[in-house]
Amino acid sequence: MHNDNAMKVPLYVLLVIESTLIAAGVAVHPGCECIVFSKVHGKEKGSFKSPDFPKPYASNIDCLLYTFVGDEDEIVELAFTDFDVHKTADDCISGDYLKVFMHLEGHSVNEYTPWESVLCGGYADIPAVIYSSGSVLVLAFHSGARTANASGFLGTFRFLQKKLFRTDGWKLPSTSCDYEFYSSDHSLLQGKFYSPRFPSSYPTNIRCTYKFQARYKERVRILFEEVALQKGDISCLNRADIVRVFDGSASADPSIRILCNENSGAEILSSGPDLFIEFIANSDRPGRGFKGKYQFQRSDSTAVARNPGELPPSTETEPNVRETRSSCDVAISSDSSRNGSITSPSYPSPYPAKTTCTYEFQGRGKERVQVAFHDFNLYVPNGNSKNCDDADSLGVYIHIDGRIEKIDSFCGAVTPKPVMSNGPRLKLEFQSFHTSRYSRGFKATYAFMENFGIRTGNQLSIYPCAFEFNSNESKEGHFSSPNYPGYYPRDTECHYFFNGNLSEKVRLHFDYFDVEGVLPCDAVSASDYVEFSNYVTKDKKFSRYCGQLKEFDVESDRQYFRVTFRSNDRLDGTGFNATYRFVMGKEGRKKPANVLNSSNWDRGTCLWILLCVISMTKIST
């Protein structure tokens, strides 16, 4: 070892690390051994592991530091390929654990340095990749007195350039994370933007804004490639860390998308030249954050990206609205037509064989595309329409998680239920292999709608999908899931708020319920769900509802009640249909009882009245 001030690292430690980059480190914490992986030694990547891996590590390792040091303009990436550290406590603070220091300003840590996370358990319990926010990252490994026969950990590291995660906007003076993006002859028409410190974890208790301003006859298109906030599938209404997208220049404008938890591939197109994004983080355990792409696009362009995860090109030579790209391909934008009809080739005459036609829809703002079928008759060999693989068919595609996914395929002569997009875009693809004089094809109508197909209640602009039902306006009515009776859209969250008068409560009756999932309707089972609450926050009184259920009733405890529907990006169902009725608080029975005509007295009541009459008679005599 060439450093005179270096701590003498035990020989067995050096033998088990076997890294291409090893140097003795300064003792930065009393009782700790330190292994340093430094860019100074000319290597940009390497590997690291626990002592004796893959054999079980020893007990009573008081403190073993793994210090990774890059250049000032770099960050550190750690990727675990194997992880088995014995877990003795849920918080991983005692026993065997690995502390992670990701936000260091210097090269050293001590007993007072705050760590960002503590890792223990198996590979499924930890993040597979960890990033520093600066040029230094430190791991502190500790094992307890008990031997657990755990093998430890194995991982790789590399140093990345910070500029790879630089936001392409103008940071506002005297702010920590507020940016503005302008479309001009001297600025980029497209670029990237990130949450603070991405890909490392963002700070707590922050508010960041991203303001996009396009030019006249331009729009702003956003693609969130990754959103990694808090883990779980809790409603965004109750999340401390959220991303809100507003269709305008400020948070007072209508909300068109709210992102929380973990997802990717969310695409937004503004209605006008302005778009405003607000990121609020108040949780104690921040996630990695988000990364997104933006593009200033001409409002008369209907170009659609052909590759998943890409923004459409923005050029003046793209096809105009409804201009066909082949004999039967059509692009339809809500700018030119909010509703209309589409048909198969030659409808109502038989369509030709060996034909492929695409119908691509482009909405804006919070618009969703709904397609309702009125006539449907496609040729099926041998009359078997259960499998559409060898039959003439109509496929439905959406953009989700950065990919184009088929969500359904229709064939035969059964008219399909309405379909709805999960965002501003939807694609239908008609494909015929055969022809028949009895197969006339299909006819459907389309509509770009902002109400998600929910036609009752007062829609609120502060949420993308929220409806209010007030007792002063109507004592009873009905409400349903998005696009009912068709399949509800994926990756969608809708709220229904019921506001009664004083001393009132609301009684709900669900006469139809088909929400994909299995009990307990959580993220483990990848379930969609319906949630009830007497508060804006989560109500422990109610468990989640999912699956196919028979008719049931739900009743509030007081005048306010909330119903939340949430779907994920997996499967879907036909949702629910329900009625509501505001009633008086005590079961709606406020009429004074008619003693003489009552037929509901019990024997105790009659005996009490008889004794009173006898007593009164004795007193009078």
Account of the 3D structure:
Pfam families: CUB (PF00431). One of its GO terms (cellular component) is plasma membrane. InterPro entries: CUB_dom, Non-NMDA_GluR_Accessory, Sperma_CUB_dom_sf. The protein is mainly beta. It folds into 4 domains: 153 residues, Sandwich (Jelly Rolls), CATH 2.60.120; 133 residues, Spermadhesin, CUB domain (Jelly Rolls, Sandwich); 119 residues, Jelly Rolls (Sandwich), CATH 2.60.120; 127 residues, Sandwich (Jelly Rolls), CATH 2.60.120.290. Helices cover 4% and strands 40% of the residues. The strands form 8 sheets. The chain has a 6-stranded mixed beta sheet, with no helix packed on it. The longest helix has 18 residues. The N and C termini lie far apart (117 Å). 40% of the residues are buried. The N terminus and C terminus are likely disordered.
Q: What's the CATH class label of the largest domain?
A: Mainly Beta
Mean pLDDT score, rounded?
Answer: 85
Specify Rg, calculated over alpha carbons: 31 Å
The total of beta strands comes to 41
User: What coarse outline follows from CA principal-axis ratios?
Assistant: globular
Label the structural class.
Answer: mainly beta
Low-confidence stretches: 1-28, 302-306, 314-326, 588-621
Main β-sheet, spatial strand arrangement: 1-2-4-10-6-7
What helical percentage do the residues reach? under 10%
Indicate the CATH architecture of the largest domain.
Answer: Sandwich
- What would you give as the CATH superfamily of the largest domain? Spermadhesin, CUB domain
Q: Tell me the strand percentage band.
A: 35-45%
Question: Main sheet, how many strands, which sense, barrel?
Answer: 6 strands, mixed
Distance, first to last CA: 117 Å
Into how many domains do the coordinates divide?
Answer: 4
Number of helices: 2
CATH domain topology of the largest domain: Jelly Rolls
